[in-house]
Design a protein that fits this description.
205 residues; mainly beta; 13% helix; disordered C terminus
């Protein structure tokens, strides 16, 4: 099973000179359809592609994840710089300017589910996953998947955009999971056959 999970983008720093952003790639907070990703079960190999809007043919940089914790996984992404005029430069500059201006306010991991369970609320608890990319995205599935914190943006950029420097919010509430679950473990052959899918409709509970 291939999937995408949208999560919180708490930008801790944004370096205009090096085009570096840091934030949270994923958390165990349930998304709007009740799915949960277990951070401690996430596997990855640094560095990974940093994509634009989940388009695999439109990379804009590279990203590295920190060690997983029970509350989430931090990331550091470096967006490329291209001097030569052309389509590549236009795309990468658009991505950087959109993030810097706050127009694109979320990130999303692209992953393959290796082990998961179905919860009583109808959602899926992804126990073990393999992440292969992180994307900057405009519209998230997770209600918290917006930039809620700007901790240390360049002062000149903050002045131009009128962005304050609030504290990073703390979420002490543990994600609730169903009492009953059915564990599904995919073998290597099943994983290779699994086709990606896209959530096209979200129904509020």
């Amino acid at each position: 099973m291939n999937n995408r999970c949208y999560s919180v983008l708490n930008i801790k720093s944004l370096d205009d000179g090096d085009r570096v952003i840091k934030g949270i790639a994923t958390t165990p907070t349930p998304d709007r359809i009740g799915d949960i990703i277990e951070p401690m079960g996430v596997k990855f190999t640094n560095p990974m592609p940093f994509l634009w809007q989940h388009k695999h043919d439109q990379p804009v940089g590279t990203v590295s994840f920190s060690n997983p914790t029970e509350t989430g996984i931090e990331f550091e992404a470096k967006i490329a710089k291209i001097d030569e005029p052309g389509t590549l430069k236009d795309r990468i500059d658009e991505a950087w300017q959109s993030i810097k201006a706050g127009l694109v306010r979320a990130v999303s991991i692209g992953f393959k589910a290796n082990e998961y369970s179905f919860m009583d609320n109808g959602g899926i608890h992804f126990i073990e996953t393999e992440v292969f990319e992180l994307s900057a995205v405009t519209i998230p599935a997770n209600a918290e998947a917006i930039i809620t914190t700007v901790k240390s943006i360049d002062r000149a950029i903050c002045a131009d955009l009128g962005i304050p420097e609030p504290e990073i919010p703390q979420n002490d509430t543990l994600a609730a999971i169903g009492k009953k679950s059915r564990i599904v473990r995919l073998d290597d052959t099943a994983r290779d056959r699994a086709k990606p899918f896209v959530i096209r409709k979200i129904k509020r509970a």
